[in-house]
């Protein structure tokens, strides 16, 4: 194991890490295998994946059913160019996705990762407005938002540590105050003022419905989503929902928009779509948008955005297997019971007065550690968690629990009992 | 099969396509299975994949060895978060990649697709210059370049159909005249003048070494790459080689830079890396760059770029299997013989006087169809090719042959004999 760590640090630069932290602040952990909610190390260690490996895994690692479907697919067709060619797994998947939204959308456009599909939605919204002779040049998004890290996605994001260094490269996005919990009236007012002043310049308003995940798990009222969407309709601006993190049951419904009483023009999905197996993303949209681009070749209206592996058959097979499990295990209903159980158990953490703002939304639970000035308490929870067999990866001093849906009640108890042990050391 | 086509067109918007073309200009082709160089349809049709499914497949579809390695991996570990955690497949892969470059690079930073890894390199180069207190705000790239379609990648690209609609969103990139064949002196002069005038504002120069692939398979002299790189060194500008399409043996050497007598600061790889199975990309770079970001946490110098599936274990397993095949089959040497055979056979096409500019570089062969004004001759080749069992996807009226390396001599003969039949109908 030591040689793995040494070689990793010699040859690899990890994402979203200050590599210097590996000198003494955090260990680098080689994972040998995984099964269900558990990740296994090389010396008998095991960790409960409390964050679903960056919010992607929903039915456990190396899920036997998804494994089998992946193996079956690779014996038939691993990949084929997705321009002019197609295959059954993606047709099946597309049909199911549209049906799952109760036909609120008409078409699926695919990409490989969350950032890329956000770029697709931004470009589609932008080009559609341009084809309609609107001289748009920017977007509206929320303060505290995270939408990915390619330049377009970064432009509509607002988490300083991610985009500060790249300001001269970013395209224009007006950031309005983010709603927090039930406080959203000010945000709505700011949105309406911004729309009034700039409506001819704005292509779309982009938001993460119900939870700004990377932005400290900021959960907020569905009414904001509804009213903001209606405002955008009133001013003729497209609405893009980034459900990359919150889609596929995470907020308690299959998609977060179901709880908001509105549908966006573009619904971006990724992460859980393949069950945590493979990069795959898709934007769902309506024929009103599709038709703007649909024209004889010589009119040059084709939407030219492609990635080599767009529509990858292996990823689609995993996605179909994931949707099979949703259906046969009635997962959305089962999660309500599980979410209540987690919520109840989590109340015990309130005995620690430095734990504040305990909140939940479906299968996401979060709280903040407050009162420790200039201390990386989140990092301490990460390190102590590892020693107790928990993979937690706090966002600063916000701790969140966002496990695979297959976690058992016993495993939940184990997590919270160990969290309590950790917090006892903080007193 | 008809119902597949109908359902596809009902629910799916394909990449890089004017969907209107499916009404009468091109068929949509459902693929049921694949093996080696062949794609199989639903009614007994088979097609030789002459373009390696957008230049990704190098050892054939559903390659038994890669299939086996993928299956073995999914029984151990399908995916784990790649921040703070790691796994053997990616450590092995990183070590092998660095070794394959003869230690010209030190570190690997991963992403999922070509566009994303270009964005990584652009952001790294940009932030590194900023950390060194240079007030950079732009890049230099080549006219006729293609580097991907997310906003950052699009900004350094220069193929009008891709980025015209998005101009107000793009970041600044100065485009200099592209070299063509042996004509590169003017380009070098323009590069030097641009560097002289703007050196304090430029973070990096980006180019596709040896072949601008999407730009009509424009092959050009390695001397340009060498001298341009040396000029950038002289003026203190980073150099990024986009080897997404040309890496992994495509130009005749494992990497194109080997033929140029220089190494860039950033080497971007994707496509062939996973053998055509799964989205995976990586940028190789030197410790001089890595060290600029390596600092105590509180200095805020971490390079924060991540994708959920960065470092995906399944994709890495396919990549390792691909490198195994390169080694055991001595592929680079074998391809030289194959490339000569293809070149010799292709000479027969010169009997058609509308075929011009026949050219090759390693395992890429291309030629242009000239003299037909305002006719989509490429499209005609595509359609007639399909009827003869060939998957060709011309770039406008440029036809290219870029097959998996496992194609046999008989299959090559089949391709060119059928191409000749197609061209006979043009006379």
Automatic annotation (TrEMBL), chains A, B:
N6-(pyridoxal phosphate)lysine modified-residue sites: 271
Keyword line: Aminotransferase, Biotin biosynthesis, Cytoplasm, Pyridoxal phosphate, S-adenosyl-L-methionine, Transferase
Site (Participates in the substrate recognition with KAPA and in a stacking interaction with the adenine ring of SAM) location in chain: 16
Cofactor list: pyridoxal 5'-phosphate
A Pfam family hit: Aminotran_3
Main location: cytoplasm
Intracellular or extracellular location(s): Cytoplasm
KW Cytoplasm (keyword) present: yes
InterPro entries: Aminotrans_3, Aminotrans_3_PPA_site, BioA, PyrdxlP-dep_Trfase, PyrdxlP-dep_Trfase_major, PyrdxlP-dep_Trfase_small
Catalysed conversion reaction: (8S)-8-amino-7-oxononanoate + S-adenosyl-L-methionine = S-adenosyl-4-methylsulfanyl-2-oxobutanoate + (7R,8S)-7,8-diammoniononanoate
EC number: 2.6.1.62
Binding sites annotated in the UniProt record for pyridoxal 5'-phosphate: 114-115, 242, 307-308
GO terms, molecular function: adenosylmethionine-8-amino-7-oxononanoate transaminase activity
Pathway membership: Cofactor biosynthesis; biotin biosynthesis; 7,8-diaminononanoate from 8-amino-7-oxononanoate (SAM route): step 1/1
Binding site for substrate: 54, 146, 271, 306, 393
Function: Catalyzes the transfer of the alpha-amino group from S-adenosyl-L-methionine (SAM) to 7-keto-8-aminopelargonic acid (KAPA) to form 7,8-diaminopelargonic acid (DAPA). It is the only aminotransferase known to utilize SAM as an amino donor.
Binding partners and assembly: Homodimer.
PANTHER family named among the record's database cross-references: ADENOSYLMETHIONINE-8-AMINO-7-OXONONANOATE AMINOTRANSFERASE
Family per similarity comment: Belongs to the class-III pyridoxal-phosphate-dependent aminotransferase family. BioA subfamily.
Identification of the protein by name: Adenosylmethionine-8-amino-7-oxononanoate aminotransferase
Organism: Helicobacter ibis
Gene this protein is translated from: bioA
């Amino acid at each position: 194991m030591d040689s793995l760590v040494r070689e990793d640090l010699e040859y690899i630069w990890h994402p979203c890490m200050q590599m210097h932290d590996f000198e003494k602040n955090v260990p680098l952990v080689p994972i040998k295998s995984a099964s269900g909610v558990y990740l296994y190390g090389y010396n008998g260690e095991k960790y409960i994946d409390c964050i679903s490996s960056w919010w992607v895994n929903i039915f456990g690692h190396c899920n036997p059913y998804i494994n089998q479907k992946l193996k079956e697919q690779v014996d038939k067709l691993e990949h084929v160019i997705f321009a002019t060619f197609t295959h059954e797994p993606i047709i099946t998947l597309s049909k199911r996705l549209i049906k799952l939204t109760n036909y609120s959308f008409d078409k699926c456009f695919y990409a490989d990762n969350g950032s890329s599909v956000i770029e697709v939605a931004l470009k589609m919204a932008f080009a559609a407005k341009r084809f309609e002779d609107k001289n748009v040049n920017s977007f509206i998004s929320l303060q505290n938002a995270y939408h990915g890290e390619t330049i377009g996605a970064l432009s509509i994001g607002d988490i300083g540590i991610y985009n500060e260094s790249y300001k001269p490269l970013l395209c224009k996005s007006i950031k309005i105050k983010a709603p927090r919990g039930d406080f959203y009236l000010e945000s709505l007012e700011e949105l309406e003022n911004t729309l009034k002043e700039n409506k001819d310049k704005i292509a779309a308003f982009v938001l993460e419905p119900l939870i700004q995940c990377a932005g400290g798990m900021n959960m907020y009222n569905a009414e904001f989503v509804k009213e903001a969407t209606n405002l955008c309709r009133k001013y003729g601006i497209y609405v893009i929902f980034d459900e990359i993190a919150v889609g596929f049951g995470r907020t308690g419904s299959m998609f977060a928009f179901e709880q908001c009483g509105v549908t966006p023009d573009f619904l971006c999905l990724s992460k859980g779509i393949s069950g945590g197996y493979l990069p795959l993303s898709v934007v769902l949209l309506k024929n009103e948008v599709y038709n703007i681009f649909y024209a004889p070749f010589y009119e040059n209206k084709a939407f030219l955005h492609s990635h080599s592996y767009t529509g990858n058959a292996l990823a689609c097979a995993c996605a179909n297997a994931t949707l099979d499990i949703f259906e046969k295990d009635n997962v959305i209903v089962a999660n309500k019971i599980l979410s209540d159980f987690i919520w109840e158990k989590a109340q015990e953490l309130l005995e620690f007065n430095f734990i504040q703002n305990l909140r939940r939304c479906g299968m996401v639970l979060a709280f903040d550690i407050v009162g420790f000035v200039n201390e990386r308490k989140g990092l301490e929870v990460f390190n102590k968690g590892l020693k107790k067999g928990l993979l937690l990866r706090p966002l600063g001093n916000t701790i969140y629990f966002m496990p695979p849906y297959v976690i058992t009640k016993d495993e939940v108890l184990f997590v919270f009992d160990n969290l309590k042990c950790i917090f006892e050391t903080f007193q």
